[in-house]
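seq:
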Amino acid sequence: IKFYPGDPRKIIDFVVSQGEKHRLHDKELTANFQALGLSLDKVRLVEHHQAHAATAYYLSPFSLEHKPALVITLDGSGDGLAGTVSLVDSTGHWQRLHNISSFDSLGIIYSRVTQYLAMKPWEHEFKLMGMAPYAAPEYAEKVFAILNGYLRLSPDNLSFENQGKLWGNSLLEQLWHDLREHRFDAVAAGVQLLHERLIVPFTDSWIKKTGIRNVAVAGGCFMNIKANKLLMELDSVDDLFVMPSCGDDSCAIGAALWEGSRLSTEYNRENLSGLYWGPEFSEPEIIEALNRYSDAVDYRKSDDIEKESARLLADHKIIGRMSGRMEWGSRALGNRSIIANASRLQNIRKLNAAIKMRDFWMPFAPSIKWERRHDYAVIKKEIPAYHMVMGFDSTPPAREHLIAALHPYDYSMRPQFVKQEHTPGYHRLLTEFEKLTGYGGVLNTSFNLHGWPIVCSPDDAITTFLKSDLDCLTLNDFLVWKKGKS
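struct:
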C-alpha cells in the first residue's frame, strides 16, 4: 500500500470484494452450518458498517418515534470501511450518504498509537483516554500536530483524509520515528485530541449539511466517552443516541435488526433501557454452588440483601455483587459488579492493590440514582446515560460523595444513571445506602480479576471472591464470607 502508485483505497476495495465472493463458500463455515442442521441458502450477509448503523438507529428512540436521524458509524475497519454516514427519514427509508475507506481510518490511528505505547491494540485504547488528562497541554498539542499530519479532515469537514499515506506496519514504523522523543502521557493526550478534533467537526458538518439534529452513532470509535461528551454538548445536536458496547460485539444484533427490518415493515422493536439480557441462576443452583465450596466459605440467606449490602457499604466494605440476569456488553451495570463506598479515596488503593490491579491512572466509575443525577453530574442536555457510554463533568458534591469514582485528575465521570424500572434491586440498594449516608451513588466496577472475564455463574463469582481480597459476596439473596471471617 505504501508504494502503490495509484489510490491505495482500490487495493482495499479489491481485497474486500474478493473476500465477499468467497466467504459463503468457505469449507469450515459450510461444515459448521451443516453440523447445526442449517442451510446456507438462508444465510444473508450484512455489511459490517450496516450492522453497526442498524444498532444505532433501530435501538434508538428515533426509530420508535418515527423521527429522521443522522446515523454515523466509525471504527478501525470492517468490510473495507472505517465509517459511514446515513440518513434515515421518518418513514424508515435509509440513504447511505458517505463511506470512509479503511485507508482513512481514525480507529486504526488510535489503535496503532496504543500498540506504540506497548499496550494491546483493539483492547487498551481506553487506557490512553484515561491517561490523556495528565499531559501538559503544550506537549499534547505537539503530538496532535504530528498525528494530524497523518490523518486530517477533508477541506469540507465531511470526511477524513490519509495525508501520510501510512497504513498498517508502515504507520507503526512512522510512529516509532516521529514520537520517540515525546512522553507517553503526551502521546496519549495527542491521539485523544486528534480523535476529538476530527469526530466533533465531522459530525457537526454533517448535521449542518443535512439539517438533521437527531444523531445516532455506533462503531468502536464511539466507545470514547470524552468525544461522546463533546458531541452531546454540540449546539447543533438536539438528541444523541450512543449504542452501548458499540464495538464489534454488537454487530450480530445489528445484523438481526437489519434483516428483520427488511423482512417486515411492521418489525417489532423497542428502545434500549436496561441491558440485563444474560443468564440468571435459581436459588437451588446457588446453594449447590455454595456447598461445593463449603470448606472455604460460609453463607446465609438474608431477609433483606439490599439493606444489608447498604450497611456493609456504609461501613466501607467492598462487595462482589451477583444478582439476577447478567448484563450484556462491556460495562458492568450492577448485576455483575464490584461495588464500594465512593466517598473514601483509600478504597481505590484497596481495589487496585488487592482486587483489580488496574493501571494507577485509570479511573473507576459511579452508579448514581436517577433521581440524584443533577446533584452529581453537570447535565447540559437531558440525554439518558444508563449504560456508561457518556462522559460528564462533576459537581462539587460529587467530588465529596463520589470522589473515588471520578477521574483522579480532571474529576470527570462515566456514570451509570440507575432507574428503578431498569434494575429494581440495584436501585433499592442505592436508596438504602442513601438513607444511611446521604450519598446517592456508589463506585461500580466489573466483577472480575484483572485480565479475567466478568463473572457469570455462582461458581465464577465464588472463585473470583476466593482469589481476591473482597470483603464479602452477595449471590442474589445470599450473603457469603470467607471461613474464619464474619
